[in-house]
Amino acid sequence: MQPFRSEVAARLAELAPLLLDQLDPMTDRMIEVLLRTEPTYRELAAHGEDDLRASTRANLERGLRALIGASRNGRSSLSGAREVGRRRAAQGISLEAVLRAYRLGGQVTWEALLEVSRTSSREPDTLLLEVAGSIWRTNDAECAAVAEGYREEQRRLAGVDEQARQQVLDGLLDGRGGDPAFVRSASELLGVPLDGRLMVVAAPVDEDGVPTLRDPASALLRRGVRSVWGTRSGAQVGVVALGGLRGADVTDWLQIVARGPVGISAVVDGAAAAGSAYRLAETAARTLPPGSSRVVTIDERLPEALLSNSPEISSRLVGQYLGGLLDLPDDEREVLLDTLEAFLESDGSPTRAADELYCHRNTVMHRLRRIETVTGRKLTDPRSRLHWQLALLGIQRSRSVPRPAARSAQQSA
């Protein structure tokens, strides 16, 4: 932006605090018009209005600070405009809609400047006529930068061969993240920053080969989160760049598009840990029973993960502590397993277990004595309780009747 004459610069400096105070109302005005007139922005806001508002406010603030002289050159404004163009291209918003939004930003800025000028002085402010030309010249330059960034991202997306993308993703998950040269090329090809906080997601496809997550890359990108997805060992696999976000936010967003079991790793720093993160995510997914539509982190499933990764020990534990129960007829087996699970979850309280199972306390006591007889273990033994809890986790995936479905049978027992 070219410098103004001294009188104009002085007037802008005088209006600067008033103008910056209008930043939030300006943002509100832009959001209101965009949501009313642009269907693609309405869709974007439906998946994350906070991200749209934050981006709009940041763009307006950059323009205002450049205008009032807080920025000594236009490079930061143009760099931000190019980045917006890239992000909107990846989000699937048309270039025409993005450019209309930028034009609207110029209009809102000019209207806000006129308003604060009228507020501070009742007389016509002829000095602002020089500012008008500068606002629109800057807006033209920013629109050109938006278009440049948009087309760069389009070319990058069109030029990324899916096989090449999968090969790079495989390399990352195979442990090549410790090679700086590989990480730089992978980050450029995949369009995902790999030098910050990452999470890995694993989602086994269903028995018909249908993906568990419905278009997860787009679902996250609408909320400003970059990720890359592929397949590995019969599962959808994704690497998610968190930036400053909490891992719990991504978990919640993926739950919306999940229709099967999904496992998520712990948050790791940098690509070097992506391989181990993948193994944790895959293990977390494996602990969920078939048909589940839950999204879980590895930290939520650590006991189950231990058993899943040691099938021989898990089988031995189940045989030693539940073997007798598993040999009973189906109806009795399920009732006693549900009773044992409720008893352990109730901290050994038969009364609370009875409430959970919708039956009388004496019924629970009778079943508990039956469990002791069949297993040869004492309910009062803390070590037996621990082993029972682990053994119940060990059979969780294979149990055919979940507890809620069995309650009607239990009420009559």
Describe the 3D structure.
- The protein is an alpha+beta fold.
- It folds into three domains: 6-159, Globins (Globin-like, Orthogonal Bundle); 163-308; 311-411, PucR C-terminal helix-turn-helix domain (Arc Repressor Mutant, subunit A, Orthogonal Bundle).
- 66% of the residues lie in helices and 7% in strands.
- The chain contains 18 helices and six strands.
- The chain has helices at residues 6-21, 23-37, 39-68, 75-91, 95-120, 128-159, 162-173, 180-190, 216-221, 247-257, 274-286, 302-308, 311-326, 330-345, 350-357, 361-375, 382-394, 403-411, and strands spanning 197-204, 226-232, 235-241, 262-264, 268-269, 295-297.
- Strands 1, 2, 3, 4, 5 and 6 form a six-stranded mixed beta sheet that branches.
- The chain is elongated and about 95 Å long.
- The relative contact order is 0.07.
- The model is unreliable at 70-75 and 400-413 (pLDDT under 50).
Layout: helices, strands, pairs:
Blueprint lengths: L5 H16 L1 H15 L1 H30 L6 H17 L3 H26 L7 H32 L2 H12 L6 H11 L6 E8 L11 H6 L4 E7 L2 E7 L5 H11 L4 E3 L3 E2 L4 H13 L8 E3 L4 H7 L2 H16 L3 H16 L4 H8 L3 H15 L6 H13 L8 H9 L2
Parallel strand pairs: 4-6
Antiparallel strand pairs: 1-3, 1-4, 1-5, 2-3
Helix pairs in contact: 1-3, 2-3, 2-5, 3-4, 4-6, 5-6, 7-8, 13-17, 14-15, 14-16, 14-17, 14-18, 15-16
